[in-house]
Amino acid sequence: MERRKIMAIAFALLAAVLYAINMPFSKILLSVVPETIMAGFLYLGAGIGIGCMFLVSTRKLERKDLLTKDDLPYTIGMIVLDITAPISLMYGLSHTGSASASLLNNFEIVATSIIALMIFKEVISKQLWIALFFVTLASVILTCDDLSGIDFSWGSIFVLLAAVLWGFENNCTRKISGKNVYEIVTIKGIFSGIGSLIIGLVIGETMPAMRYIVLVLILGYVAYGLSIFFYIKAQKDLGAAKTSAYYAVAPFVGALLSFVILHERISVQFFIALVFMALGSIIATIDTLLIK
Question: What is the pLDDT of residue 11?
Fold first, then answer.
């Protein structure tokens, strides 16, 4: 395998690992930072960080790469969804385990695929339908606190809602993905971050101490900004489909980090869901890698 492709695979896996640290460290910071304010500063960290990288970038900017009026509906949709999705995720994390939330994040695969099928008429293979079934089954198991009585976990439901919202966001972003990526991520981060902060202040949340704000900004830059940056670098040599396949390891890395960092207890229910989620992810990955 040529060196560039090896580097691209390394970038894809690095992007997954960087995003995976979001769950356990966000869970820790949520003890001192309100949920909506937290979501705002996470995205602000990504937008400011990538914006600074754009300023020092030597890449020549061409007018055709910039967003236009025709891209406005998808850009607005992307921003609105990137305000609501992380807020939902932070509320979910406040009421469920970080490891379970990491696995539930894989439901984004289901949401993105179904939305792409229903709205954008994309074709879903038989193998991917099987993968979506396993991921959905695992998500249902993780969402129920008591399988015998079907007692739903509201924290898990908020995480699933975030996955659905990001599924819509993925499809909006896909429509403008041919434009300058630095511009897209900077706009996404700054405007979504500001929107979340405004909502947080309106509903009465209070600003945390400056040291916590700095920590959240750094986490946002690393887990959202840099993750996207390395994801894009991988796409140049692997293509979008194969990069997404390697990126599918993120939820499992997040679950592992949750056990190591937060010492969360492992339930039988979690292991059952882990098996189904792994099956679904493996089938989806194989299906994606087979795409020509």
Answer: 86
